Amino acid sequence: MAPLRSFDAFAKPIDGIRERSVTGGIITLLASATAGLLLLSQIIVYLQVQTRHSMHLADSVPSVLFNNASPKKLLGHRIPLRVHVTFPHLHCSALDYSHDGNAWSSGKFEHYHKAPFTFTKRKPTVSEYKESTKSGVENNRAIEKLRLEGCTLLGTLQVPRVGGTISVSVSPDAWRRATSLLSFGVDPSKDPDPFHGKMPNVTHLIHDITFGAPFPPGDNPLQKTHHVMDNESGVALANVAVKLVPTTYKRTFYAAKETYQASVSRHIVQPETLAAQRSTLLPGLLITYDFTPLAVRHVESRENWFVFLSSLVGIVGGVFVTVGLVTGCLVNSVQSVAKKMD
Fold first, then answer.
1. 91, 155 in Cβ contact below 8 A?
2. Which helix (H) or strand (E) holds 333?
3. In whole angstroms, what is the distance from residue 335 CA to residue 333 CA?
4. 10 Å Cβ neighbour count for 83?
5. Would you place residue 309 in the very low, low, confident or very high pLDDT band (cuts 50, 70, 90)?
6. How far is CA 246 from the centre of its chain?
7. HSE on the CB side for 277, CA within 13 Å?
8. How far are the Cα atoms of 5, 20, 47 from residue 37, in angstroms, in the given order?
9. Is residue 9 very low, low, confident or very high in pLDDT (cuts 50, 70, 90)?
10. pTM for the full model?
11. I need a surface site. Which of 61, 196, 206, 263 has the fewest CB within 10 A?
């Protein structure tokens, strides 16, 4: 065992030779403070989230267009589309909606979208009416009466992962009745006129329209959006084009989540433009959406735990080793100079 002593890199000093001094205590405190600051900064760096983005071609998913397909075949081919819109000046009896041309008034909408994945119409609540009109009316009794003239559309559809359109507008019968009454003074219906002899005001508020799972770090541009038809008639078409970017969202310690980011462009089409183009679109809200062929991967991660632990050990050990080397060099230099002076 004696030959092994020559390989000992941790030689023990003799107690009688070791000497403690005030200078050494000050140097030790400074080294400890420096190691503590570096340790704290390393912890702060570790707790910060590193975000990385990458782009790639989106996976090609064949669309299943028919509802009579089995749920297993539909899995992954459709995404939820949530809609919550309020028309404060349009009665529910005069409101129509459609998806890809399948209108509720024609009965085709209910054929392709069955409960629970469908839309429902109801009277707006007091808070919905206040938010959609921004009239500043605080009298709840007055609002209770006024909100009966409005309509709120809400619900969730399961739509294929292909481009499509959502339309919320004046119903064809109500539009024919309003134009006939204003143009010829003839009311083809015996029911009470919901527009009171005026053109239908299609001002509306989009409370929320969401495609698929929302992207947590981003904002939804189709949320709290107010389209005010400020012309004399109140008739216009809000044309909204939506580009959906498939986004994979990955967080530390969580499974990857498939979400969608939306890029939105919108403009108001005036009735003169609709008439000049001989458009068959009715006043209201038209949303055209499509999916981009490029997908984004958003990854939030932290430094590897073993790398972090190695950094901590290296900081503490490195500070004291460096201070020991510098102190030893200074002490030896002072001793050498003192011997030469003697």
1. no
2. helix 305-341
3. 5
4. 22
5. confident
6. 12
7. 10
8. 38, 25, 15
9. very low
10. 0.72
11. 196
Burial of 304 (C-beta count, 10 Å sphere; 0-12/13-18/19+) = exposed
DSSP letter, residue 76: T
Closest-CA residue to 79 (of 97, 96, 58, 95): 58
How many other CB atoms are there within 10 angstroms of residue 25's CB atom?
Answer: 10
User: At 54, which amino acid appears?
Assistant: S
User: Rounded distance, CA 272 to CA 275, Å?
Assistant: 5
Nearby residues of 152 by Cβ (< 8 Å), 6 or more positions away? 84, 85, 86, 87, 121, 122, 123, 124, 125, 128
Which tokens in the block code for residue 219?
Answer: 């904002």
- 101 token code pair: 């041309």
Alpha carbon distance 34, 29 (integer Å)? 9
Please give the angle made by the CA atoms of 116, 118 and 124, to the nearest 5 degrees: 110
Tokens representing 12?
């023990």
Q: Of the segments 13-22, 50-59, 71-80, 320-329, which one has the largest average pLDDT value?
A: 50-59
β-pairing, 151-160 vs 119-122, is antiparallel
Q: Which is nearest to 231 in space by CA: 202, 251, 254, 263?
A: 202
CA distance 295 to 31: 50
Per residue in 170-200, pLDDT (tens digit) is 988 888 877 776 555 555 555 665 666 577 8
279 Cβ partners below 8 Å, 6+ apart? 273
